[in-house]
Amino acid sequence: MSTRTSFLDIREGAISLGPVQMEPFRPDSVNLFPKMPSRISENSWELWEFEAFGDRGAPAILVSLYRDARGVDQGGFHAEVHAVWPDARKWGKTLYFQQSTITAEADASGRDEGTVTGTWVSADASGLDESEKSITFTIDPDLSSTKFRFNVPGEVVGEMELRSTAGSTGAARKEANLPATEDAAQLCPSVYYTFPMGRLTATANILFTCVEGDGDRKLSIGLDEDSDSHGSMVRGWSTLAWPRFMNDAYYTVGHVGPYKLQLLRTLGSAAVSHFPYAVARLHREDQLVCAAHHAIGDGSEQMAKGQDVVRVDKIFDTPGSAQPSGISSNFRDTNVGYIIEFASPRQQQRWRFETRHRLPWWSEPTSEPGPDGCGKSGWVETFFGGLVDEGEAFEGAGIGGQLQIPVP
Asked: CA 287 from chain center: how many Å?
């Protein structure tokens, strides 16, 4: 069986100052193999992101593995790793790895749709030594599981696994979660953002070093038989830098009763006329009930056009209220949560969920400080809601992050 390999060394010509041709999107494909396998331009990026969290949202871990030019000065492709515990202790760092290798085995049809393995690794002075510093993931051909290994001594060491829920495995489940058209894979023109793995459970047994001055601390998820755990995955890529198409974003994944929701909503920059964009998935049990590729302000008009849609509104504390309704970021956007509404004309149904920020996670500026400062913030989230017509009022939890960039 043949294997295709993409190897990039950030110190050895991996970054191109000029444009790099992307490999095309493939319908009904996992599209896990890099779209820029030999070089990547200075404005392009590719992302493989994974999350795991407990039934109450914490403990939780988020891992974002990038191929882009942002780590050139640090000599490595960057990986963002964030962890949080139920007592609100947290750990977060950007790690840099000189080399990124992704291999994809061929499937029965000869396409690179078999087992996919990705490794972000640093090389020491004597050559490649994977035991020194690496993060590795392996994804099964049918997307039934992803196994993670963290080996960064002095920072993070351990293992994590994401696995499809019972009843959601096999070819039918895989096909249901994959975008069938290029439009369905795009957040906005030229920006691809997909959620290929559907509903997942998670296990994690990871040791972090120096957790807020508290020494080493273990993060355990899904190891207790009496507690549920959840996971998710993102695959994205583009030749456009983020400020080219957005100045505000919210990403969340949550479990609310029988529902799993996963969403990225952006507000466009002036370059795209401040247009809202979104990609969102809503599962009930193991059935995908809404697959939205359009963000709207009023769902009634779009419902008539026969396409799944999502609406996202921010929640703010009521001025003068004696009881604050949630926590907010340390930046100019002081929302305390979001309203997320899904609408599916195929199902002739609407679902409404309210999320509130419960525990602060990460907080980093993206602009100069001040009352109009921008930043990125993460939280453990609480959720409430369900099917509107049935009056469902399930409670749940998850994780979320928002970003503002100081561009018009």
From this structure: 21
